[in-house]
Design brief:
Blueprint (H helix, E strand, L loop, with lengths): L3 E4 L6 H12 L4 E5 L2 H9 L2 E4 L5 H11 L3 E4 L5 H6 L1 H22 L2 E3 L2 E2 L10 E3 L10 H20 L3 E2 L1 E3 L1 E3 L12 H9 L5 E4 L7 E5 H13 L11 E2 L3 E3 L1 H11 L4 E4 L3 H9 L3 E2 L2 H7 L7 H15 L4
Parallel strand pairs: 1-2, 1-4, 2-3, 4-5, 5-8, 6-9, 7-16, 9-13, 10-12, 11-15
Antiparallel strand pairs: 12-14
Helix pairs in contact: 3-5, 5-6, 9-12
């Protein structure tokens, strides 16, 4: 990769992936693109920012030509809980952006990264040590889009030779930007809320719902490590299980309480989020990623808690 176009660069992953890519490849070689003016202006403060609707194929193609991009990182998506409120919109955005990326990559010879998710799995999938290759029958439009995206990406590789690669992200914990509309959002929101006066957080996910989680630095490294991997080693492409840690809200909150003794927690369970959480893996088997491109996460739950609390306090002006 020499020049990378990042679609959806203003989202939770994009806001941290763009500077990560800039550090690796240089600011002039990373083009951050988003639809919202405020996010584009923020991208322009530290590099190249472009306004684009990722569902507008011609507009995306124009950016690829303008900057001679050789890789497209398509991060555009409506997340799980948000998608259930408007399935048609979720399909149009999620699949429209992906199909445009794949077709443009075919035309201009670009590589394509587009994230998949634990949301690609469903109730009939083995929940413990979920295999790399297993039944995938998701119960959300978000998951349906992810499974379709994996199949399409593999198709464009085998049929047209497009260098497509992706990972199945767990819930991502980060302090760069709050997520929006995901089932695993509680694992980010709690840190912002628990440092406020009163030290209380109300969780919308059941106390005993295990889900895979990952800290953003590991997620960023996974993206670039996979995209730089020797293609001759890749038996899989779309998409690799990657895992780091798995816990329930109760386990996370107990660990936070050890650091903030007067912290309190309760639950107001959202039935939609509860059903989604129950359909997802407890813990994925990521042995294929470890074997094929040397995936190895660095962050565990305790280190994440300490880092998140410190970062959120700094952002709140408490340190």
């Amino acid at each position: 990769m020499k020049r990378i176009l990042v679609l959806g660069a203003g989202g939770q992953i994009g806001t941290e992936l763009v500077p990560h890519l800039q550090n690796l490849y240089g600011k002039d070689n990373v083009i951050g693109a988003d639809l919202k003016d405020a996010l584009v202006e923020k991208l322009r403060e530290n590099g190249i920012g472009e306004k684009v609707d990722a569902t507008d194929a011609q507009a995306v193609a124009d950016l690829v030509k303008k900057y001679k991009a050789d890789a497209i990182f398509n991060l555009v998506a409506l997340l799980s809980a948000t998608g259930e409120k408007n399935p048609q919109l979720a399909w149009n955005i999620n699949m429209g952006a992906l199909l445009n990326s794949l077709n443009i990559a075919k035309e201009f010879g670009c590589a394509v990264f587009t994230p998949s998710s634990i949301g690609a799995f469903g109730n009939s999938t083995p929940h413990d040590m979920t295999p790399q290759d297993t039944i995938m029958r998701p119960s959300t439009i978000y998951g349906v889009c992810k499974v379709t995206g994996e199949l399409l990406s593999d198709y464009y590789f085998t049929r047209f030779g497009v260098d497509t690669r992706s990972v199945r992200f767990p819930g991502i914990i980060s302090n760069g930007q709050l997520p929006g509309g995901g089932t695993t959002d509680y694992a980010v929101e709690v840190f912002y809320e628990i440092i406020k006066p009163g030290h209380h957080y109300t969780c919308e996910v059941p106390h005993d719902s295990y889900m895979d989680m990952m800290y953003m630095p590991d997620a960023l490294n996974a993206v670039t490590q996979l995209m730089e991997a020797d293609p001759s080693r890749l038996k899989h492409r779309n998409s690799f299980n990657i895992a780091s840690m798995s816990f329930t809200p109760e386990i996370l909150f107990d660990a936070i309480k050890k650091r903030i003794p007067d912290a309190t927690f309760d639950y107001n369970v959202d039935p939609v989020k509860a059903a989604i959480a129950d359909s997802w893996p407890n813990m994925m088997d990521d042995s294929c990623a470890r074997e094929e491109w040397d995936w190895c996460p660095k962050w565990g739950m305790d280190a994440v808690i300490d880092d998140m609390l410190a970062a959120c306090r700094r952002k709140a002006g408490m340190e």
